[in-house]
Task: structure prediction
Amino acid sequence: MRPPFRSILVTIVLGVVFFRCDCEIVQFIFGDSLSDVGNNNYLSKGLAKANLPWYGIDFGNGMPNGRFCNGRTVADIIGDDMGLPRPTAFLDPSLTEDTIMQNGVNYASGGGGILNETGTYFIQRFSLYRQIELFQGTQDLIVAKVGHDKSQSFFQQALYVVALGSNDFINNYLMPVYSDSWTYNDDSFVEYLTQTLQTQLTLLHGLGARHLMVFGLGPMGCIPLQLVLSTTSGCQERTNKLALSFNRAVSKMVNDLGSQLPNASFTFGDAYDVVNDLISNPSKYGFNNSDSPCCSWGKIRPALTCIPVSKLCKDRSKYVFWDEYHPTESANMLIANELIKKMGFNKTSLTQAPTASPAVSPSPQG
Ligand SMILES: *[C@@H]1O[C@H](CO)[C@@H](O)[C@H](O)[C@H]1NC(C)=O
Ligand SMILES: *[C@@H]1O[C@H](CO)[C@@H](O)[C@H](O)[C@H]1NC(C)=O
Ligand SMILES: *[C@@H]1O[C@H](CO)[C@@H](O)[C@H](O)[C@H]1NC(C)=O
Ligand SMILES: *[C@@H]1O[C@H](CO)[C@@H](O)[C@H](O)[C@H]1NC(C)=O
Result:
């Protein structure tokens, strides 16, 4: 339940600054398995799914819910912290115009990337372009339901999260079966990704996205899978360098784009440094393991996915990684806190519309 006071306050402030829409502030989330809340479970032919125990063991009733985690994702935690409702998975049968306007929509899909060609190996997943197409479909539904003006203000006051990129490396560029791996070099691939993302963010702005957060990448060369595959059993330095170079390029692009596009409040944040430190010094953060998945088949590594016969670690809150690829909820909490800190995002900042100039004095009648 949301505190009624905040919801009224937000409505009044934004209702005046924008076009007098008394709708909820909701989120539209675009992402990969780090943000998927169930879409892939509905893709009948998709191979990347979190539909078996022990996924979801620390969430709700403890049954698998499509999150590639034991508990909440980073986007869940940030949204919870800001008092926003949890967006419904796009493919969830409960999605209707009403739930869209109450909760927003999450289009994130495990295996998805910025590039269309990323993750083809998983057979079915929504790439970012596809997620944006689905979002356009959502807009059409809302326009038909509430009309153009109200729909426009609803979509302009929403919060947008875009969090993709690791699959473009792990399940594309760094795998020799993908042609991008021999078409590009490290620099030109990062540039190709950044330019593609710039086009996609511009497209979203054209569709009404004004408050938009882009999450950067963590030290993906240190995920358990990469440690197992590494000859030195340490982090894969080249993979980490790619993540850093992606973060640098995308950070600049997002800031430049945000200052060029009208009324845009675009922010970039990554948690690379803190996760890197967490992996090197887990005990400093109260963790006890940063190199193996909490859910695995004992010595058989890489385990690829967590399944019912897997063994769980004793204390999930002390492991950085849940499976070979994905952090635990406790690591996600650390990441979410870092992103909130870096992006200066809090409950107050969301109510300050980018269009609001100090000269505008909100009247409570709005
Ligand atoms: C990517 O896929 C979308 C469909 O989801 C398509 O409209 C677009 O043209 C594709 N872009 C490229 C560069 O292949
Ligand atoms: C930007 O905000 C101003 C003031 O609210 C508004 O008049 C203008 O139409 C907006 N422009 C765009 C492109 O959203
Ligand atoms: C985890 O805890 C055990 C027992 O307290 C300790 O021996 C070990 O060094 C710890 N490992 C890490 C990575 O902190
Ligand atoms: C919240 O965000 C606003 C605007 O970005 C900032 O001025 C304020 O200091 C932040 N408050 C906290 C508690 O971080």
Summary: The two ends are 24 Å apart (CA to CA). The first strand starts at residue 27 and ends at 31. The chain is about 40% helix and 10% strand. The pocket of 2-acetamido-2-deoxy-beta-D-glucopyranose (ligand 4) is lined by residues 344, 346, 348-349 (CB under 6 Å).
